[in-house]
Amino acid sequence: MTTLDINGRREATELPEDTPLLWVLRDDLGHTGTKFGCGQALCGACTVHLDGQPIRSCMTPISAAVGKRVTTIEAVGADPVGRAVQAAWVELGVAQCGYCQAGQIMSATALLKQNPRPSDAQIDEAMAGNICRCGTYTRINAAIKKASSTLSAGAKS
Ligand code: FES
Ligand code: FES
Predict the structure, then answer these.
(1) pLDDT digits (tens, 9 = 90+) for 99-148
(2) Domain residues for 43?
(3) CA-CA distance, 153 to 157, in Å (whole number)?
(4) Are residues 66 and 112 in the same domain?
(5) Whose CA is nearest to atom 3 of ligand 1?
(6) 41 CA distance to ligand 1 middle (Å)
């Protein structure tokens, strides 16, 4: 049995420790907000945070998550940065089909936690691994900047 810290709660799985984290999250523990896209660390749909760092859960064995904090899209809004990112996404209507958007939000939140005022180049670099077949990239960029402004205005007040 493997015990994981997922969104601040301890959850156990009987699956082998080389099972990809994405399979455990979705199929075993019911955290279906994280999506399966390519299964090969190429699209970013499965992005979650491991101790605050964005990782591709489709290629990360659960053994690598033991003793670390796993955060998924279901809990990213519990954090002020994640909350600002989600609010900006809604305000600017970023999503089209929505399939890639959980991963986009997880990568954007990780970026703003590390770099609260990213340049366009830094946004492009941080988000390069998150593919959107609907082509929402312009709105994603605008929403990251909107969340950045909201957070910096809050920090000054
Ligand atoms: S499903 Fe993990 S990167 Fe595509
Ligand atoms: S919103 Fe459809 S794939 Fe990104």
Answers:
(1) 999 999 999 999 999 999 999 999 999 999 999 999 999 999 999 999 99
(2) 2-75
(3) 6
(4) no
(5) 41
(6) 4
